[in-house]
Each structure stands twice: as structure tokens, then as C-alpha cells.
Structure to design on (197 residues):
């Protein structure tokens, strides 16, 4: 393990509760496996995996105050549901606190919960790894999505978004519009891909 990975692992152990830290290690592991499968840089995937939830254990008011203090944009939905800001604040902290300069790693952290239309390979890897890591037990269709993740990453991304939207619609929480936008993009993308085959 490289020095940076050792250092970041120690840092995450300090700022996360044990359950969140176990999840973080699971995402790092899964991101590394997906990176090997799709020829992405393994260490970059591990760094993004380790840092993706670096702001997750912050209280809501702290997330809001960090956004205010450092002029990070927050949508109305995020302001009403500050826990949604952990990805935005996490991306900021990765750069400022943990000295990550790679814009793709920062972007993978930023979009790991909602995704975005036209994600890079690294973004898709972290988005997927967060959902399928070994500690995840509750999500529907997990076996199918884990299989898809290693056979057709775009189809896995679409299925994760579909299941996430179904789950969010069944509850009474607010949904980040980016999740819906990303789903529509990958739904169309996968349909076009199939028609070209």
C-alpha cells in the first residue's frame, strides 16, 4: 500500500465512526476491483473510494456552515436536506484538507451519490462501488447489480439510479433533481447502445 493510501486510511479512521469506516474500506476495495476490470488507475480509484464519505459524519449545521463559509453552491433541495451536501463538502475537503489535486478524483467524490449525465469512468466506478460494496445488504437487486457492475458498467449505473429513484419515490424525502436527470441520461444512453449493437 502506498504512503498516501496509508495516510488517508488513518485520517478516515479518525473522522468516521466504525460503521462508516467499514463502509469506506468496502468502497475502496470495490473501486480497486472495478478499476482493474475497466483499466482505470487503481490508486486513483482507491483514493476516491477512501475519501468519498470524508464529510459524511459531519452534523447538518456544520455541512451548511462549511458551504456558507467557503462559498460552495447549495441547491434549495440541499439547503432543506443538508445531509445531501456531504458529497459537495467532501470534494472540497479532499482538496483543502487532504491535498488531492486530481480534478477527476474530486469530481468522483462530488457526484458519488447523484451521479451526473456523461460521467467519466472514475466517476462511474465510485458511484457504483458506493452502492455495491460488500457491506451493503439492503438494496434490492444487489446480486444482479453486482454482476452487471463487472460486465456492463453503464447498465449497472442505470439500474442503481432506477432502484434509487424507486426507493426515494416510495418514501417522503426530497429527491435531488440531478439523480432523475442522470437516470434519464443513462436510460437513453443504454437504449441507444443496444440499438447500435
Amino acid at each position: 500500500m502506498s504512503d498516501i493510501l496509508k495516510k488517508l486510511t488513518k485520517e478516515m479512521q479518525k473522522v468516521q465512526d466504525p460503521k462508516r469506516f467499514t463502509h469506506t474500506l468496502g468502497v475502496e476495495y470495490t473501486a480497486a476491483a472495478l478499476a482493474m476490470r475497466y483499466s482505470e488507475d487503481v490508486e486513483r480509484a482507491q483514493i476516491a473510494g477512501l475519501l468519498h464519505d470524508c464529510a459524511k459524519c459531519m452534523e447538518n449545521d456544520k455541512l451548511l456552515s462549511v458551504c456558507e463559509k467557503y462559498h460552495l453552491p447549495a441547491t434549495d433541495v440541499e439547503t432543506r436536506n443538508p445531509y445531501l451536501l456531504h458529497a459537495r463538502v467532501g470534494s472540497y475537503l479532499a482538496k483543502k484538507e487532504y491535498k488531492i489535486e486530481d480534478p477527476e478524483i474530486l469530481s468522483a467524490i462530488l457526484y458519488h451519490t447523484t451521479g451526473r449525465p456523461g460521467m467519466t469512468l472514475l466517476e462511474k466506478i465510485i458511484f457504483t462501488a458506493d452502492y455495491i460494496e460488500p457491506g451493503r445488504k439492503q438494496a434490492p437487486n444487489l446480486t444482479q447489480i453486482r454482476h452487471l457492475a463487472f460486465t456492463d458498467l453503464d447498465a449497472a449505473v442505470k439500474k442503481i439510479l432506477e432502484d434509487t429513484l424507486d426507493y426515494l419515490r416510495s418514501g417522503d424525502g426530497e429527491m435531488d433533481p440531478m439523480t432523475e436527470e442522470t437516470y434519464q441520461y443513462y436510460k437513453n444512453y443504454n437504449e441507444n447502445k443496444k440499438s447500435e449493437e
